[in-house]
Design goal:
Elements: H1 2-21, E1 24-25, E2 31-32, E3 37-38, E4 44-49, E5 56-63, E6 71-74, E7 81-82, E8 88-92, E9 96-100, E10 106-109, E11 119-122, E12 128-131, E13 137-140, E14 148-149, E15 154-158, E16 163-165, E17 167-172, E18 175-185, E19 195-199, E20 202-206, E21 228-234, E22 238-245, E23 252-256, E24 262-268, E25 271-278, E26 293-295, E27 304-306, E28 312-314, H2 317-321, E29 329-331, E30 343-347, E31 350-351, E32 358-361, H3 366-375, E33 381-383, E34 392-395, E35 403-404, E36 414-418, H4 435-440, H5 442-471, H6 485-492, E37 496-497, H7 500-506, E38 515-519, E39 522-528, E40 534-539, H8 547-560, E41 569-575, E42 578-584, H9 592-595, H10 606-626, E43 631-632, E44 641-643, E45 649-651, E46 658-659, E47 667-668, E48 674-675, H11 681-686, E49 688-689, H12 691-707, H13 724-733, H14 751-764, H15 775-783, E50 821-822
Parallel strand pairs: 37-41
Antiparallel strand pairs: 1-11, 2-8, 3-4, 4-5, 5-6, 5-7, 8-9, 9-10, 11-12, 12-13, 14-23, 15-16, 15-22, 17-18, 18-19, 19-20, 21-22, 23-24, 24-25, 26-27, 28-29, 30-36, 31-35, 32-34, 33-34, 33-36, 38-39, 39-40, 40-42, 41-42, 43-46, 44-45, 47-49, 48-50
The structure holds adenosine monophosphate.
């Protein structure tokens, strides 16, 4: 009996081991319902699945250890098996991998191979391959992408074999059949390769012309440091673009979803983090500004300008004034092409124009490229799209879908042909490149070379510092003496360090008259530097327990962030106990002083309020998604939104912002910071924060801006509603949302926009964080007229509900009564 038990156990064990190791189908081994193949180290699994509530069955590949099934490839996407009859996947004659149903009808099969002796194997990168006995790949699923691009998969075209690798969306979440959208290389011309997202034949967005440089960012900010590399292969017979990830333990995928979005996903701890979504904004739309136009003010419809307003003018000025960009721009002085008299103007940091009508050469210097272009009267511009190589691209038609990128983006240069008359006017973007000028100014060249040498020298120094810093990463940086100016200078601060005496002089010794206000971390003073520049100086409270941390956090975070909707940090000063932050001065101070003030609020008409909301949304999107650091602000509120001279909103106060690593994207914190009235339930009650807690605060802010009322401290009679949210929810359900509008802007408002904004606000404050949109969804909602989902009921939190109400143990350091800021609540 004992012997039998041992045998049974051994068999079970062997069976288990065998099942765990099964990554191959051979002529002896096939796959049927309930069976799966698992790749060697258990990352991917192949088997049969039913998407969502669909009854259709498919053969697909998904991540083995991710509980929410994430399918990365589907074999029979257009030919599902309907009903429950058994399926079999096996190798048949001519090395074909075939999926059949119970009556041996073929549901799906791979191509014929030249070998009889084949096996099918699921590899650890998610590639299902049919191989011969020498491991030569005869067929692979990577050649037939569905909606997902994994590291190692390529996009492109093989012109000889007339083969294309492109992503195509599913029809819907429940239906993997071929959907409407594709993302792949331009396939109707042989111009320099670029990718386009298309709906049928119409282009929705265009990626930049391919470059080995396009995905070389590291994702250190998610707590995992790895290098992404793009591998672009451009040959006579084929072109392809692929990305690789150095650290194979990182799970990353790019998907094209069924609602025209290309999304990048990274697995972080327990969930997929959306790293990037496009399109996000109006400016992402293909060729929105037409020839020689550039989309500069994102989101707004008034977003097109001519590439260079000194040299180009709108083709149809009247239409342009009405925001009709269809005519694009034309040259102020037409080209004549006389005896090579024309030259080129260089525009730096651009997304190069559509390469549809281009010629290119893969090994030509930029000088040679310029000469080529000059010789041909139809050549409009030239550029090298890839800084890792010497590629020459020539454009032979008007430049379409060009974009001037934000500063620091590091995009390539383009040289645009100009009539000689136009060479005199300075470019905003960069000075004209003139042959004669170049020759004449040898001294200048020597000077530039000298500085180039200096620059290279300093880059090496910076690199050495960086390398040293990486090496020392495990060691806390601000250990021991909290701050030393040299620390900051060497490692984290590119900004100027100000001396204490400069700042004391600028603020008249921190005089009361210069005091602008006081936030959770101490007073803020207005100052004027000797050269007449106005500044705002935040003087960190010496008595605050947490100040230095926040100071460090703020300095490091903000110095790395640049966006027009974030307040700019000019520098800092450390002097003994004193720690000062120096910002650009915002003459209109903070938003709360407008929206909650009867007189001031009259200055905010409806358009201004809407623009402010859009600006805040863009700033938050940048923090959450676009910046290299990913930041959750954690204290988004009206008093943290500053207004510049033109009432453009700028998010301030990153002392509370927290750049988060991989395990902190949805983290539980013992340390609750934020402001009542703006805190999401999961954050206020359980200390759980994520980008969705900022979305919640944003939603409250939207409702405050529309209504002109504070959420906190709001009471209605006779309904006795204890906060604005409850009031908004009642009005919404009664269909009387318009009653919410602040009477001071009622006249200028556009009712459908008001209703839409309130709905967006309510979507952002839904109780369940997963139900809330992310900021890129919010921006889409604000910028379009599409139907919005119905918001679910929010939670009506009152302060007594909050577990963290523990004022006595908190180190509350400031804020008005109406705005109780919790700067630290320690669970002791
Ligand atoms: P904070 O500590 O950032 O919350 O700032 C407190 C107050 O100081 C704000 O509500 C503003 O009124 C004012 N303030 C802060 N920064 C600036 C700035 N850069 N320009 C003008 N006023 C500012």
């Amino acid at each position: 009996m004992e012997g039998v038990t041992i045998l049974l156990f051994s068999l079970l064990f062997l069976n288990k081991l065998y099942a765990a190791e099964l990554d191959t189908i051979s002529d002896l081994r096939f796959l049927t319902d309930g069976d799966t193949l698992v790749s060697a180290t258990g990352v991917f699994e192949l088997g049969f699945f039913q998407p969502g509530i669909s009854e259709n069955r498919y053969l697909g590949i998904w991540y083995k250890n991710i509980s929410v099934r994430t399918v990365v490839w589907v074999a029979n996407r257009n030919n599902p098996l309907i009903g429950g009859s058994p399926l079999v996947l096996k190798i048949v004659d001519q090395g074909i991998l075939r999926l059949t149903n119970n009556i041996s009808m073929t549901i799906w099969s791979s191509n014929k191979t030249t070998s009889e002796n084949t096996t099918a194997k699921l590899r650890d990168n998610g590639n299902l391959v049919v191989i011969d006995q020498h491991e030569n790949v005869l067929w692979q699923s990577f050649d037939y992408p569905t909606d997902t691009l994994l590291p190692g998969m390529k996009l492109g075209k093989d012109y000889l074999r007339n083969k294309e690798w492109c992503l195509s969306s599913w029809k819907s979440d429940q239906d993997p059949a071929l959907g409407e959208f594709t993302w792949g290389v331009e396939n109707d011309t042989r111009g320099y390769p670029q990718s386009k997202l298309k709906k049928g034949a119409s282009v929705i967005i265009r990626g930049a012309p391919w470059s080995n440089n396009q995905l070389t960012w590291d994702i250190d900010e998610f707590g995992k440091s790895t290098i992404f590399t793009s591998v672009v292969v451009i040959e006579e017979s084929s072109v392809s673009d692929m990305y690789n990830i150095e650290d194979k333990s990182i799970l990353f995928r790019i998907t094209l979803n069924s609602s025209e979005h290309l999304e990048q996903w990274l697995w972080v701890q327990n969930g997929w983090q959306n790293v990037l979504t496009s399109p996000v904004e109006a400016c992402d739309a293909y060729n929105i500004c037409n020839a020689y136009g550039t989309c500069s003010i994102k989101l707004s419809r008034d977003s097109c300008t001519c590439l260079d307003e000194k040299r180009f003018v709108p083709k149809n000025q009247k239409g342009w004034d009405r925001s009709d960009w269809s005519g694009g721009c034309i040259r102020r002085t037409p080209l004549e092409c006389k005896n090579g008299s024309e030259e080129f103007i260089k525009y730096s940091n651009v997304k190069l124009p559509d390469t549809k009508n281009t010629w290119f050469n893969m090994s030509m210097s930029i000088e040679e490229c310029g000469k080529r272009c000059l010789k041909n009267c139809s050549c409009m511009a030239y550029a090298n799209p890839d800084p890792t190589r010497s590629i020459c691209v020539l454009w032979f038609s008007d430049l379409l879908d060009i974009l001037l990128l934000p500063k620091g983006h590091g995009g390539p240069d383009i040289y645009v042909r100009m009539a000689s008359l136009e060479l005199q006017a300075p470019t905003e973007n960069s000075p004209p490149v003139s042959k004669n000028q170049g020759k004449a100014n040898i001294k200048m060249i020597l000077l530039v070379s000298f500085f180039a040498v200096l620059l290279i020298g300093s880059m090496i120094t910076i690199w050495l510092c960086y390398a040293r810093r990486k090496k020392n990463k495990a060691k806390p940086k601000w250990e021991g003496e909290l701050f030393s100016a040299s620390n900051i200078q060497e490692e984290d601060m590119e900004q100027a360090l100000f001396s204490f005496s400069t700042i004391a002089n600028a603020t008249s010794n921190f005089s009361l008259e210069n005091k602008l206000g006081e936030g959770g971390f101490g007073p803020v003073y207005k100052g004027m530097l000797e050269e007449g520049k106005e500044i705002a100086v935040k003087r960190l409270s010496k008595y605050s327990n947490q100040g230095p941390d926040e100071f460090q956090n703020e300095v490091i975070c903000i110095s790395k962030l640049q966006h027009r909707n974030l307040v700019k940090l000019l520098g800092c000063c450390v002097h003994g106990d004193e720690k000062l932050l120096i910002y650009e001065y915002m003459p209109n101070k903070s938003l709360d002083s407008f929206i909650f003030d009867k007189t001031q609020s009259m200055l905010l008409d409806w358009k201004t309020r809407f623009d402010i909301i859009k600006g805040i949304a863009r700033g938050l999107l940048y923090l959450h998604q676009d910046s290299r650091l990913r930041i959750i602000h954690r204290d988004v509120k009206a008093s943290n939104i500053l207004l510049d001279h033109d009432m453009n909103p700028k998010i301030s106060d990153f002392g509370l912002a927290r750049s988060f690593g991989g395990n902190e994207t949805y983290a539980n914190t013992q340390r609750v910071v934020g402001t009542y009235g703006y805190m999401s339930p999961e954050y206020a009650l359980d200390g759980l924060f994520s980008v969705k807690s900022d979305v919640y605060s944003f939603g409250v802010l939207v409702l405050e801006i529309v209504s002109g009322k504070r959420n906190r401290g709001f009471i209605t009679k006779p309904e006795n509603e204890i906060n604005l949210i409850k009031h908004v929810w009642r009005l919404y359900n009664e269909g009387s949302s318009l009653e919410l509008i602040d009477e001071t802007c009622a006249e200028s408002c556009h009712p459908p926009e008001v209703i839409r904004l309130i709905k967006v606000g309510l979507l952002c404050i839904q109780h369940n964080a997963d139900d809330r949109p992310n900021m890129s969804n919010v921006i889409m909602m604000l910028g379009s007229d599409g139907v919005l989902p119905e918001p679910k009921q929010p939670t009506f939190l009152i302060e007594n509900d909050l577990r963290v109400v523990n004022y006595s143990s908190s180190t509350f350091t400031g804020g008005s009564l109406n705005e109780l800021t919790i700067t630290e609540v320690n669970a002791r």
